[in-house]
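Worked problem 6 (solution included).
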Amino acid sequence: MFSIKKYAAIDIGSNAVRLLIANIIEEKGKEPRFKKSSLVRVPIRLGSDVFLKQKISKENSKRLLDTMLAFKLLMQSHKVEKYKACATSAMREAKNGKKVTELILDKTQIQIDTINGEEEAAIIAATDLHAYIDNNKTYLYVDVGGGSTEFTVINKGDSISSKSFKIGTVRLLNDIVKKETWFELEQWIKQNTAAYEKIDLIGSGGNINKIFKISGKSIGKPLTYFYLTSYYNTLQSYSYKERITELDLNQDRADVIIPATRIYLSAMKWSGAKDIYVPKIGLADGIIKSMYYDTVSSNSQ
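Solution. The predicted structure is:
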């Protein structure tokens, strides 16, 4: 028996909005395989509105609506049979977030679930992290977003502790992360990793994926603390314009990549990690996997 299902995930983040369409390949007697079919990313940067003015601007509400209409058409073209849309930090904190999601539901019939930081961490952890980790090791998993960063300590394949902090790339760009929040994060990492002799980082998010790609490392090989520090210093030595023209970064990546790297380096320093592994996973992958396994479990009951 062999079948292919098409699922989609919409991730409405503080920096960008993504549509991931995946093929789920089912074969009798085998684990399902999840294969990316299409990924579309639109850099709306809702966080710049919300973290400074507490609401989504008219212009960005319109851009988000247009993006959702486009995503709906793409899902129809791909014959997607099931999808889920999740919004994170910016939508959570926007005073008009509910109004915007209701407008989108009315115009596109796309229902948006606004999830909290802990739910976000749990969905990401539902991605096949087990395929990337060694069950004899301890990891600090760090998922950097525009509005928040999710941290999870994983020991011998089990999630030990998890927390979301309001430290994200868009917040840092706008200089609205308090010193106390950094201190709280430092204490949390130190307290939750102190019991382990050796710890490695697992990093996810568009910025670390980009750095990994630039490094030329083969899949499964880690980036070192030394490499990441060196690249961070290189980034800072270029102007925003030079990072676009000479380092070939997209304009919406060329600014956030610096605060993102700072978050990963801080997590490595405070946990004592020397290496960071970069599997290509994130919230959208987690949404698709959790949808699939929820369907399977409800069908088997």
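Discussion: The mean pLDDT is 93.
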